[in-house]
Amino acid sequence: MIGQTISHYTILEKLGEGGMGMVYKAEDTKLKRIVALKFLPKEWEAHEPERARFMQEAQAASALNHPNICAIHALGEHEEHQFIDMEYVEGRTLRTLLEEKELLLHKAIDMALQICEGLHAAHKKGIVHRDIKPDNIMVTDEGPVKIMDFGLAKLRGTSKLTKTHSTLGTIAYMSPEQARGEEVDQRSDIFSLGAVLYEMITGRRPFKGEHEAAMMYSLMNETPEPLARYKSNIPDGLQRVVEKALSKEQKERYQHVDEMMADLRRVQNTISGGMASKANKSKKLWIVVAAVVFLAAVGLYLFYPKSAPITPTRKSIAVLPFKNLSDSKEDEYFSDGLTEDIITQLSKISGIDKVIARTSVMRYKQTDKSIRDIGKELDVTTILEGSVRRAGNQVRVVAQLIDVKNEGHLWADTYDKEMTQVFAIQSDVAQQIAAALEAKMTPAVKKSIEKKQTENTEAYQLYLKGRFYWNKRTLPDLQKSIEYFNQALAKDHDYALAYAGLASSYVILPAFGLLIEEYYQKAEEAATKALEFDSTLAEAHTVLAQIKENHYDWTTAERIYRRAIELNPGYATARQWYSGLLNTLGRFDEALAEAGRAVELDPLSLIINYNLSRTLLYMRQYQQAVDQCNKGIELDPNFPWSYSVRGNIAEALGKYDEAIKDYQKARLLSHSSDPNTIGDIGAVYARTGRRDDAVKALRELDEYTRQGYSVSYYMAYVYYRLGDEDRTFALLEKSIHAHDTSVMDLSGNPIWDDLRPDPRFVALLKKVGLRK
């Protein structure tokens, strides 16, 4: 076939032949790139089962996009010859490399970790390779390792492959269950990887036999020789990793490849530390010389102009959602809760410049993006990822801290504990990360992180369920969160975090039009109770500040917000709400700083991005405000408030058609249930002469009043644009008396600019303490 043109591919040379086909190097003449074409063997093409298996390989592998997996570009057929267009990988197989030279220990571990990364991506998609062996691992010329030939790949959930085909993989690397022709899962790949790792370290296969029967006997019955028999200076941890991966029984093996990854990274860190120690000894000789050079440099420094100081690398981290590896999907609340608790603990450490908030990291829960891409999007230097498995009263937590720049591992650990020790796990993870980032902790923060919030594990689990539903932020979910927080308090009457959760739920309910005073009173009682048991809870302080703000006690509200931020500098919600207070007080530059910091901490949060756009609106920085609204729409085109603020901007600029378009979009997305948008659109109708439409909007708002909602502020704005100032002021007085949260807009929102000189407007601001 060399030199032939098939479809739009020119065949250049034959690369090899495997159990599932022949592979050729070819040029894709359309895209002008070199690819590898894999053809089904001719003798199999007439057999539909083999053609189906060939297609299965392509379909399985094409679902994967990972730097450690050979990419599938396309499927093709030429004159009834089926082929796959694959990534052309320049390099050599691991088999060839092992035959050429002995691998250094640290190199073997690094390559094994890369194979783990590729398998992890495949297993997340439900794909099991089934044929991991040195022949199917390519070591590229640039260094990265790639897994090739998903020729025996099988999607979990499809029917079993036949026993004949289940034993096609090379026996020396097969798991016992695969060799027996049984159903296999990801643990079979882990066994095969263990065999490959053993060979990379020792240069020998773990199981021996000169013919198939002998090899099968060794595989099923014999224990591989210890690594130390063939190689010196083997860390104990490495021997344990290999032994566990090669366990004959599936249940005794690593259950998921990320668990093996974490253990390998710990070994890697141990070896790196040892290498550094040896290197330090060799450096002693030239330290004196270095000191002399340094002193000379200081002398030069004193005589030459000073450049700008070097800014140290910022210590920043994102904690990705911990994977739930438990048998029950209902345990999702537990893995999410553990993620959030670790974020909270890290946020308290002022020595860490930035800890990304829960809202933003949860967007990566099912992502296939690389660590480097996530780090770039969130603008962080490190990422913590991990997994959680619960079984009865036992919990296993695997955690690993990764450097975004080079995807190297800064720290990793596995915790096998009873549920009663889960708080100790959280505390240790936070302190280990602080140590890895060289972030200093005050004694007070250390004490706060180490504090055990409850002795009752049932109360803790009920609390986590409450947080799980609170984070959904719909009215039914908030009501459900209140139920769980109350159940947690029934188990432990002194549980400060459960009181704080209760307060956080109650304080949001008025935003849904529910009774303001009733729920604010409940929120205040719960927050006060939380602080009785733990005065360091930033969440409870933030709720109290919001309540004081709603009661127009601006001074006390600011003091409490500042205390909350002092206790937890990384708590984005405290900064968001504080920026709202600063807007109300007309301190826009400070508001912008806090709103911007909140976005930095929670860059993918829709509500926090919305808050920044409102701040820019109040500052009359209209173009920047529009840009921020557009960013919010890009994050989620179905979030109504981004369109609402963009409509405010268009209205302020006199672009009424654009304003109406955005308000209508916001109303459509909110299912016509947002009185704020109804008021906005009614006012613009009034400004453009559509009086009947404006009156219709007033009728809709009046219906909300009859249902118990507080909408006087929105009605006031429509009457203002209809020219009825007396009714406008009467309704604004009513909204102030009701402590409507929208009153905070009076001092800054440009919609009221024309009315500000009116003495009655000045009197209103004085009444709520916004004018002296």
Protein described:
With 772 residues, the protein is α+β, with helices and mostly antiparallel strands. Helix content is 54%, strand content 12%. The protein has a 6-stranded antiparallel sheet with strand order 1-2-3-4-6-5, covered by helices on one side. Strands 12, 13, 14, 15, 16 and 17 form a 6-stranded mixed sheet that branches. The chain has a 3-stranded antiparallel sheet with strand order 7-9-10. The radius of gyration is 32 Å and the shape is elongated. The protein starts with a strand and ends in a 5-residue tail after the last helix.
Helix and strand topology:
Elements: E1 5-6, E2 9-18, E3 21-28, E4 33-39, H1 42-45, H2 48-62, E5 72-78, E6 81-87, E7 91-93, H3 94-100, H4 105-124, E8 127-128, E9 137-140, E10 145-147, E11 154-155, H5 163-166, H6 176-179, H7 186-202, H8 212-221, H9 236-245, H10 257-303, E12 316-319, E13 323-324, H11 332-347, E14 354-355, H12 358-361, H13 371-378, E15 382-391, E16 394-403, E17 409-418, H14 422-436, H15 443-450, H16 457-470, H17 475-491, H18 496-508, H19 516-533, H20 538-550, H21 554-567, H22 572-584, H23 588-601, H24 606-618, H25 622-635, H26 640-652, H27 656-669, H28 675-687, H29 691-706, H30 712-721, H31 725-737, H32 759-767
Parallel strand pairs: 12-14, 12-15, 13-15
Antiparallel strand pairs: 1-2, 2-3, 3-4, 4-6, 5-6, 7-9, 8-11, 9-10, 15-16, 16-17
Question: Can you tag this structure with a few keywords?
Answer:
772 residues, alpha+beta, Phosphorylase Kinase, domain 1, Transferase(Phosphotransferase), domain 1, Rossmann fold, 5 domains, 6-stranded antiparallel beta sheet, 6-stranded mixed beta sheet, 32 helices, 17 strands, elongated
